[in-house]
Amino acid sequence: MPGVLAVLEQRDGVVKRVSHEALAAARALADDLGCDVHGLLIGPPNTSGDGLGEYGADKVLASRDAELELYQASRYGQIAAEQVTAGGYDAVVLAATSLGKDLGPRIAARLGCPLASDVTSLTGTDGIVVTRPVFAGKANRRMKITTTPSVISVRTNAFAPGSHARPGVFEEISAGGEMKPSDARTVAVKAPENAALDVAEAGIVVSGGRGLKEAEHFKLVEDLAQALGGAVGASRAVVDAGWRPHSEQVGQTGKTVSPNLYVALGISGAIQHLAGMRTAKVIVAVNKDPDAPIFKVADYGVVGDLFEIVPRLIEEIKRAKEG
Amino acid sequence: MGKGGLIPGDFQPKLPLDKLILGEPLEEERIDVDVLFVGAGPAGLGGAIRLAQLVKQDNESGSGIGDVTIGVLEKAGVLGEHSLSGAVLNPRPFRELFPDLDDSEFPFRTRVEEEATYLLSPNRSRRLPTPPTMRNHGNFVASICEVVRWLGERAEEAGVDIFAGFPAGALRVAENHVIGVRTVASGLDRDGNPGANYMPPTDIGAKVTALAEGSRGLLTQSYLDWQGIRSENPQVYALGVKELWETKRPLDRVIHTMGWPLPRNAFGGSFMYPLEPKLVAFGLVVGLDYRDANLDVHELCQRMKLHPLIRPYLEGGEMIEWGAKTIPEGGYYSLPERRHGDGVVMLGDSAGFVDVPSLKGVHYAVQSGMHAAQAIFTALKHEDASAARLAAYDSLVNDCYLVHDLYRTRNVRLAFKDGFYAGAAKAGLMVLTGGRFPGGRIKMQADSQKPRTVAKCKVFAPDGELTFSKVDAVFKSGNVTRDTIPSHLIHADEVSPELAEFYSHMCPAAVYEAVDGELRVNAPNCVDCRATDVLGPRWTAREGGSGPAYKRM
Amino acid sequence: MKIAVCIKRVPDTETRIKISADGKSIDESGVKFVINPFDEYAVEEALKLREQADGEVVAVCLGSDASQETIRTALAMGADRGVLIKAEHVPEDPLVVARALAAELEQGGYDLILFGKLSIDNYDQAVGTMVAELLGLPSVSAITRLEVTDNRATAQREVEGGLEVIEFSLPAIVTAEKGLNEPRYPALRGIMLAKKKPLDIKDVELDAGGIEILGLSLPPDRKDGRIVGEGPEAVTALVDALRNEAKVI
């Protein structure tokens, strides 16, 4: 019976959390289509497929070889595409990670089938219909996939890993042929170059604005960022004033950030600032002006003197983290 | 501050002519064109297109002037992005420039069928008969951005080289002769040091340079100063703030208002034009000779939208663009005594070709460009770009409807220098008598010489839906100027708290702020409107592509 | 070295998105179009390689007539010639685009083909990699560094928590990520020269693909937030909400 193939990622032989999300999406789709989910695990010989039934896999196919420890585009692509053909799958689902965004198009091109990237929702009740953000997240496109099979990559954090009781039967499959000398070969994975957390990449951002009154008071912002394990951002006003470097500026003419948590301290919320952070998942604002526009976009607002509020916040967060 | 109040001119730096008029020889690595138009607005593009047509006709007729390279230099990154006008256009020069095209093929929006003029009080409006000069039947509502983009396409088709994103920063001269311009460097950091993307300035050599920079043109002012070219009255300016709205309620007419919210000693009014029934331009224009130092045109424009005449049209809609620009309002008596020199002519708003009583300038700009093209063509034919030869441009302009129109209304704007009601009465008579009343010339001071009184001002809190702060407005102008470029603005070394406050109200784009009595300059906010160049800190050209990015203003 | 750079005309990222009447596309009135910013990195890298090793840089674009302007931008930056594969509408199915480009690029004898990693309208991040698969060429996507010596190359790309180092031989395809370089602005002279550079226009038959657009919609407004409280006393409630409600700390 045809089914959905979830291509899974591992690091050091351990399946990554994003692949649990991919399995969740695959499971939901398979339930709509009335078919099974097979996980395809490509990795080194020690790669473990244990426990994937709980995340929704009916079967786990493992393609293991020492050369597959790092992501090798051509070999990964070949293994996945051949498996789709051999297994007659309806759809391939993978996480839209840097690996998934490279591998997805390869599988689709090899199979000559459509690709839907970075989808945030999908259903299979009336053919496969997906929704995905386009135009830098300023619009969502709904589209129907009209041919079979298809490749779908799912956006991180869009599908919560499920809790299922599927068999997750383990099966070793071919690890494909060796790579050609002309093939692109990943020779190493190095540690990232800059150690400082970039505001555009950070999961948590604490930004300060003019409400801090003086450059020295930015220490409060830094302390809160440190307590939360986040990066420091700044409004244009304080960057213009020379309090902070331009690399920290959040906003239309600075950086666009999309963290899980954005804390705005003493930032009134001009549109040009909002343009750079409004896609943050959770926004917290501390400002003494209850009419400040930042409160219109903030999920949680605290009105008052940030010099009283922030030290207390740092304290409580430290306590919460310890406790 | 003296007893008579604050005189802005006392604190205004002079233009640094040593940096704006460069006499050393052109760089080896320069670009040469035959004719260079500085500014891709209706004047520059109209002139470039006309010149290309004349060259083509001449070559086709066999008298063979040969290849003529025509360049247009524009500071906006994309044509039209720095162009802002009301606008209700008179199509006359378009018909002359494109005789084969029908009106419907021009990039105009709606033909004006209905119009209404109102006198406003804080909560009421009284309909007035539309003054004869303001009648627009047969004219077209248009977006100057769209008109400019369209003219740009026609110019490129005609073989004109358009360089968008390259501001002219200085005139290149040899003795009294203008021999080209130098563009502005880009990629400088805040301290003026070359950064990763540094691009040095480029010299552009030209046999004739046509300055079509728009209102308060930098090189035009420099040239006039340098050559000591005078006008009978100094040029005076108004500042216009304009918004574009997508509305829920359709508008079927052109509306003008006078009166509230302007104090009686200020000159100006608002306009509301439908580009489409539900795409409405709304704006307020105020003469920069206003007396109250804390008068704030942007804020008045915001307050106006709360008026019962305006509010119902805009409420529930969305403000999609915002912009600001000055307008030269002096008219006939403020025209420079000559608009030509050795190797140079001055066109459009730069020369002051605006008729305030009819609220028109765009068609004069195009027309002046076409006349300039004629004179330049003749100069090229004779291989003589001297002032004597280019004087033909002034004759053509003086003998056409352009200067005739301005002459007829020569004292109308000036009549308002002492307040609105006296002005309105006098202006009415002037129009009726074709300018013969009151005879002579009403003398005018430069805006910067008008004393200002400093009064306490009320704080206005915008709601973010119908009314907007200046910072939000700048966002809506599309301004994405690099934050780290050097400041292009020059202000006095010492700025008093009153002066800082005055600048902060005058500037519609929150470039100037008074923070704890001190002046703060947020140069990247600047939308090149030039209001403070008229009354305070001077404007110079900055990295190409900076400033607003108007799309349908 | 013969290099192709594939570029696309896209709405500016600052563009305010409005849905058109058909409910499936954006309303293009008042929208500014630009060369896709990621493609600028690709063009810049190609120009740098040509400066190193001589050769030719060809800008290839699938798009409508208006895309000629986009090609001129690449020519003004320094590309030698342009090819427009003319299509009224650029399909949303990346494989259809990839096939059309592959058919053109296959003929060219290119040593290296560059793309931007994605186009800021569709956000697929697929076409370059697909073309590589269709042509059977090695490829690396979203690179932040590239070094070429003779017919071997090394590229780096950022992955979660690290930097992959990839070696491959030419001919090959790479797609450019932000950070690869600082794209140059076209210089005045470049703009003048661009007009005289050759630009071939070719017709193309596009296949139907396997994707049907059902609709385009604006993302829902943010849910209304709430004021947790005033002053330092509100901190406990805030931390509690972040911890137990929003689950972000």
Please explain how this structure is put together.
The complex is a heterotrimer of chains A (323), B (553) and C (249). Chain A is an alpha/beta fold. Chain A is 28% helix and 28% strand. In chain A, helix 4 links the parallel strand 14 and strand 15. The longest helix of chain A is centred in the N-terminal third of the chain and has 17 residues. In chain B, strand 9 and strand 10 form a beta hairpin. The mean pLDDT of chain B is 94. Chain B starts with 16 loop residues before the first helix and ends in a 14-residue tail after the last strand. Chain B has 553 residues and is an alpha/beta fold. Chain B contains 16 helices and 24 strands. In chain B, strands 1, 2, 3, 8, 9, 10, 13, 19 and 20 form a 9-stranded mixed sheet that branches. With 249 residues, chain C is an alpha/beta fold. In chain C, helix 2 packs across helix 5. At the A-C interface, helix 2, helix 3, strand 7, strand 9 and strand 10 of A face helix 3, helix 4, strand 7, strand 8 and strand 9 of C. Strand 18 of chain A pairs parallel with strand 13 of chain C, so a sheet runs across the interface.
Largest interface, by Cβ-Cβ below 8 angstroms: which chains and how many residues each?
A-C, 84 and 78 residues
State mean pLDDT of chain A (0 to 100 scale).
93
Computed CA radius of gyration of chain C, to the nearest angstrom: 22 Å
The helical percent of chain A reads: 25-40%
Order of helices and strands of chain C: EEEHEHEHEHEEEEHEEEH
